[in-house]
Specification:
The protein is an alpha+beta fold. It folds into two domains: 1-30, Double Stranded RNA Binding Domain, CATH 3.30.160; 33-152, no CATH class. Helices cover 33% and strands 18% of the residues. It contains four helices and nine strands; from the N terminus they run ββααβαβββαβββ. A three-stranded mixed β-sheet has the order 3-9-6, covered by helices on one side. Strand 4 and strand 5 (103-105) form a beta hairpin. It is elongated, with a radius of gyration of 18 Å. The two termini are 34 Å apart. The structure holds zinc ion.
């Protein structure tokens, strides 16, 4: 019998190599929201949450500021504690977890995405940036060319 050391943690399938497991996962658990190790993720401290919120919003704002809307898709990596990412984004419709790659993913698209981020962090006008003249700049999101942000937590702990 061939050894199949790569077990799917979401069902009872096993595979001989990681590539097959990843293929299986993409095919059958593409929209997975189950975190098999959820029980070890503790509720984040409020101070950690506030720090993450600031860092997260700053990261997006700096990317938007330097790239305008020439790209239609942006990927932003925020390295932070895993439990924060999980507790903040788990309720989102676009939240997924890729078990074999240990990757969390949450997509925010277009104006609706901008508003959802504002709701999550309870700061509705987060995309308005104060410029050096003391005024405000609104980052523009063209309707026909929505900006997508993939927000990915660190891959492993
Ligand atoms: Zn499976």
């Amino acid at each position: 019998m061939v050894a199949k050391p790569f077990h799917c943690l979401l069902c009872d399938k096993s595979y001989a190599n990681k590539t097959s497991l990843v293929t299986h996962e993409r095919k059958f658990h593409n929209q997975n929201v189950i975190i098999p190790h959820q029980h070890i993720l503790s509720v984040p401290l409020y101070s950690s949450y506030c720090h993450f919120r600031g860092l997260f919003i700053d990261t997006i704002q700096s990317r938007l500021g330097s790239h305008r809307s020439t790209e239609c898709k942006k990927k932003i990596q925020v390295h932070y504690e895993e439990n924060l990412f999980y507790f903040i984004f788990r309720e989102q419709e676009t939240f997924t977890f890729q078990v074999s790659g240990y990757k969390y993913n949450c997509v925010f698209k277009g104006q609706a995405g901008v508003e959802r981020i504002g709701k999550i962090f309870q700061c509705p006008n987060w995309w308005m940036k104060a410029n050096k003249f003391g005024g405000e700049t609104i980052v523009y999101y063209p309707q026909q060319d929505p900006i997508t942000k993939n927000l990915i937590d660190k891959e492993s702990i």
